[in-house]
Every structure is written in C-alpha cells, then in structure tokens.
Design brief:
mainly alpha; membrane; transmembrane helix; transmembrane
Length: 124
C-alpha cells in the first residue's frame, strides 16, 4: 500500500490534541486539589450522561479494535496489518486510542466536578 504520510499527520494531530487535553486535565485536577471545585452528584442526569459517554467511548474502542476487518478482510489480524499496511497506520491507531481515552476522562471529570461559587452574580 502506498504511504503518503497522511497517517503521520493524523497521528501528530491526535497526539497534539491528547497533549492539550492532558494539560487541561492537570489544570482541572489542580483546581480540585486546591478546593476551587468539588464533586456534585447530578442525580439521574449524571447517570444518563455517564452511561452515554461510556457507551460512546466503548463503541469507539470497539470499532478501532475491528478496524482491520473494515479495511481489509474479515478476520484479518493486527499482525498482518503491521506487515501489509502503511507504515504510519499503527501510530495513527495508537494516537487515536489515546485521544479517545483522554477525552473521555476529561469530560467525566469536568462534568462531575463543579466550581464552588460564592453565590449568584447579583448577590455579590
């Protein structure tokens, strides 16, 4: 298969966005540790959001796992993809996997930990 370098571009973009999400996650955790944010149970809405986000991340992981079946033939193992696929394919898949995981963790932490406010804007 001809390698045009586009997969390396996709991998670099995924790693860049995953790094940005990691920085935002560190900043968010520092706010939680500093006491500026606290956990808030959201009730049934929180459960629904958790289930939907977990399902979306699970479906993404499932489709990445079965990517060789989609691109080549059903039952194609990953070892064969490493041999016959473009050179940047595995890097792009790994970067996409990390990006999906980082985005899921950031979204869950951001949703469940809310800013502690000193009242509404009108009360200040």
């Amino acid at each position: 298969m001809i390698d045009s370098g586009i997969l390396y571009s996709i991998a670099a973009g995924c790693w860049a966005v995953a790094l940005l999400i990691a920085v935002l996650l560190v900043l968010l955790i520092s706010k939680i540790a500093g006491g500026k944010k606290r956990f808030k149970a959201k009730g049934i809405k929180g459960i629904i959001v958790f289930l939907i986000a977990t399902a979306v991340a699970g479906y993404c992981a499932y489709y990445i796992y079965h990517l060789p079946d989609t691109l080549y033939y059903y039952g194609t193992p990953w070892a064969m993809v490493e041999e016959i696929g473009p050179s940047g394919f595995m890097e792009a898949v790994m970067a996409l996997s990390v990006l999906i995981g980082a985005a899921y963790i950031y979204a869950m932490v951001k949703f469940y930990f809310v800013k502690i406010s000193g009242g509404t804007y009108k009360e200040r």
